[in-house]
Amino acid sequence: MTITHLPVPAGPPDDVPPYEPWAGEPEVLAEAAVAGRRAAAWIRSLPAAPTPRPVGTWLAGALPAAVEAAMGSLDPAQCDRMGPDGRLVEGNGGVDAGTTSTLTVVPCVLSDADWLTPDQHIRLMAVASITTGIARLLADDPGTAILHGQVARMCTTLDHATRLDHPGLAT
C-alpha cells in the first residue's frame, strides 16, 4: 500500500479572511511599546554589580533589550489559529522564541544578582511576567485583551512595577 500526501498550499487558504485590526489596537500597541521602553530604562537604571559578572552584564543589556523588543513587537495577528492542515498553530503574540526565552529565565538568574534588593528582584520578576503575559494574552484572545482593556491594565501594572519613586527602587 502506498500513501501519498497531498501538497500543502504555500500561503493561507483562500477562505481565510485577512487580518483586520481591532478597534483601538494601534493605540493599545503604542501604549505597550512606550511601557516597554520605560521598563527597559528602569532595568538599565538598576545598580551595577560591584564586580563584573555575567549576570550583571545580562541585566544591563540583554534583559532590558528583550523587554523593549517584546513590548515593541506585540502583534495580535500572531494569535492561536488553525493551520491549513486543521491543526492548532500556537501564536506568540508577536514575540519571538529567543526574546521569550530571555524573559522566562529571569527567576533563575536573579539569585546571582545578590547586589540587588529583594524588592528589585520581585519587580524584575514582575516585569518579565507581565511582558510575557501580555504576549500570551494577545496570542490566546486578542479581541478580549484589547477591547476589554486587559493589555492597557497590564501596561499600567508594568509602569507601577518599575516606577522610580518607590523607596525600594531608589538607586
Task: Tell me what portion of residues adopts beta-strand conformation.
Answer: under 5%
Spatial gap, N to C terminus? 72 Å
Low-confidence spans: pLDDT under 50, at least 5 residues?
A: none
Structural class: mainly alpha
Write structural notes for this entry.
By secondary structure, the chain is mostly helical. 54% of the residues lie in helices and 2% in strands. It is built from eight helices and two strands; from the N terminus they run αααββααααα. Strands 1-2 form a two-stranded antiparallel sheet. The longest helix is centred in the C-terminal third of the chain and has 23 residues, at 118-140.
List the helices and strands and how they pair.
Elements: H1 25-45, H2 54-60, H3 62-72, E1 81-82, E2 88-89, H4 97-104, H5 106-109, H6 118-140, H7 142-147, H8 150-161
Antiparallel strand pairs: 1-2
Helix pairs in contact: 1-3, 1-8, 3-4, 6-8
Brief digest:
This protein is mostly helical and 171 residues long.
Kindly list the characteristics that best describe this protein.
171 residues; mainly alpha; two-stranded antiparallel ribbon; 2 strands
